[in-house]
Amino acid sequence: EKKEKKEKESTIMINRRLFVALLTAVPLVIVPSCTAFSSSLTGKKPTFLKMSSTAEAPAVPEAPETAQKSLRLGIFGGGTVGGGIVEIIQQKAKYFNELTTQNIDVRKICVRDASKPRDFTVPSTTEIVTNYDDILNDDEIDVVVEVMGGTTDAKDIVFSALRKGKDVVTANKALIAAYLPEIEAILEEVNSDGSRVEFRYEAAVCGGIPVIRSLQSDFVGDEVSMISGIINGCTNFMLTAMDRDGKSYDEALAEASELGYAEADPTLDVGGFDARSKLKILMRLAYGIEVDEEEIDCRGITDLTTVDFDYAKKLGGTIKLLGVAERVEEGKIAAFVSPCYVTADDPLFAVIGATNAIEILSKNLQSSTYIGQGAGRFPTANSCIN
């Protein structure tokens, strides 16, 4: 029985790394060509950031307002996620006060257009600004929250805030994928005198799923052998519509755009590039290595048709866009992003809509699966708050 179970698990793992070849007449299932990274793992260990002990502090009776300290925030970005952060802080103000003995004060929000109407109530004590320096040069602001996106201005903001001794929270996956080593170098520099400036990016991968913190703290004594998952909500929504509802690629994309899952330019999502950025971040945390994102094989969903899903159904499965990283041998990691054939008994088969899911295989915990909302106003804002 143990032998049969082991063979079955092996078959499932192999199947997951298969993808549907996109041929016009007869689709085929073939094994993708994956790049094996030659970077040695010897001496390179994952970077584990020290977790704040704030969440473990016991609740205390509410003190008079005059005796309360304030944690002052400056938020870059007043859109979907920025608004969600403000709303959660307002809704949970009393609880956060009891938990931390501090008033969380959103002091300033930096936006492109201060006259633009907001879809959230701006606190009376919050100032809307358009100049980055209004936050960066404000010595009273303790924490900078970057949810504006991009890798140019956002990079300058994050680097500057850390050098000025401000804690930083970001949801910017592209920034993390491109500059995490440099950010960690800045942290080491500013904390060399005993300071405790912190940088957090839980919301950068899979929105509301706490996979970053888990990799930083729950696998310290473990050894990750494989990461496999659905790490882009837009494409999973589209593939669900094509599989379950029989919609064409164009119809599925139009629906995703209408519901706000797809950007005005969906190339990063449908091309697999968004998933590749996230996979790179997960690889660094799981294996402690830094790789060139361009070295990760990447194939999107733009060529998929209803014929591919009909063929997958006849085989008893479906198609998912997966990001996969696996330790193939000592010192080497193989990784790719691609549409994959997934069998009906695979944990990822039932993950539908904009939901994300990540399965982590490891020596001690064996298999750990994380499922949740990978994007959206409150899932992402929740990770920023935490």
List the helices and strands and how they pair.
Blueprint: H1 2-16, E1 19-21, E2 28-30, E3 35-37, E4 69-76, H2 80-91, H3 93-100, E5 102-110, E6 127-129, H4 133-136, E7 143-146, H5 153-163, E8 167-170, H6 173-190, E9 199-200, H7 211-217, E10 224-230, H8 233-244, H9 249-258, H10 267-270, H11 273-287, E11 297-298, H12 306-314, E12 317-329, E13 332-343, E14 355-362, E15 366-373, H13 377-385
Parallel strand pairs: 4-5, 4-7, 5-6, 7-8, 8-9, 11-13
Antiparallel strand pairs: 1-2, 3-13, 10-12, 10-14, 12-13, 14-15
Helix pairs in contact: 2-13, 5-6, 6-11, 8-9
Can you give keywords for this protein?
about 25% strand, alpha/beta, six-stranded parallel beta sheet, about 375 residues, 15 strands
Q: Can you walk me through this structure?
A:
- With 386 residues, this protein is an alpha/beta fold.
- It is 35% helix and 23% strand.
- The protein is built from 13 helices and 15 strands.
- Strands 3, 10, 11, 12, 13, 14 and 15 form a 7-stranded mixed sheet that branches.
- Strand 7 (143-146), helix 5 (153-163) and strand 8 (167-170) form a beta-alpha-beta unit.
- The two termini are 44 Å apart.
